[in-house]
Design goal:
single chain, 248 residues, alpha+beta, 7-stranded mixed sheet, two-stranded antiparallel ribbon, 13 strands, globular
């Protein structure tokens, strides 16, 4: 069962002394994490406003949904953000972002960033550097960024669309219409969510802003993490191991 002490837990986790102790133990400074999170939050608000203006629905997913529900913002040690967009809206959003004349952000895609090979998109902050140690030698835009994932329809035969390709899943297929985040970091079945679970995106408080999350966020998070109110062990609370950081 999910613990019912979320209010007390949130109060503890927002204590500056505890947060500083956590970051010292993790080998990072609280001030750097907060600066990174500030850049990412501005990017999230930027995308939210574009989606609102163009009738596009998105959802906070993964750790960002967990942060919104458990911390009313970022997971304290997190240094990125994830949003999911149903395929048709995803195509629309990416097209709009490509045409948006905003010098603050850079949309990573293979048309411009030719060594960016991921199947999803990143919105990176110009003038910053965040080199992940695993991709430090790649000639891509290494900025602080948020991830934009396509949510693909999974039908009864286990087929889903990626661009114009049709892929088949050998995993157990749910009987109801569902969406899958094919590029998510968790096991395939954990990345499947019914249309009902995602539902009508609902506004959730996120730091000093309000962003969209799955309608039945408790079900979504329980499917992904199990007892999501239980904190991970201290030694596993790590971000993305940056090799180099530059923050304005």
């Amino acid at each position: 069962m999910i613990k019912k002490n979320s209010f007390f837990l949130n109060k503890i986790l927002k204590t500056p002394l505890l947060q500083n102790i956590l970051y010292v133990c993790l080998g990072r400074t609280m001030s750097n994490i907060l600066k990174i999170q500030s850049h990412i939050l501005k990017g999230l608000v930027f995308v939210h406003e574009i989606c609102e203006k163009n009738n596009i629905t998105y959802y906070l997913i993964g750790g960002s949904a967990l942060g919104a529900q458990r911390h009313s913002g970022f997971i304290p040690w997190d240094d990125d953000a994830d949003i999911g967009v149903k395929r048709d809206d995803y195509i629309k959003l990416i097209a709009i972002l490509k045409l948006t004349n905003n010098k603050k952000y850079f949309l990573q895609n293979t048309d411009i960033d030719t060594e960016f090979y991921k199947g999803y998109r990143k919105l990176s902050v110009n003038g910053t550097i965040y080199k992940d140690k695993y991709y430090r030698d790649s000639k891509i835009h290494h900025g602080i960024s948020l991830d934009i994932f396509p949510l693909l329809i999974l039908n009864k035969k286990g087929l889903f669309n990626i661009s114009k390709k049709i892929l088949k899943s050998n995993n157990k297929i749910p009987k109801v219409k569902s969406y899958v985040n094919f590029y998510g970091r968790y096991k395939f079945n954990k990345e499947i969510n019914s249309m009902e679970t995602l539902g009508k995106a609902k506004l959730k408080k996120f730091k000093n802003s309000w962003l969209l999350a799955p309608e039945y966020i408790n079900d979504y998070l329980f499917n992904l993490y199990g007892d999501y109110m239980e904190l991970s062990p201290l030694n596993s609370r790590e971000a993305h191991s940056p090799f180099k950081i530059k923050i304005n």
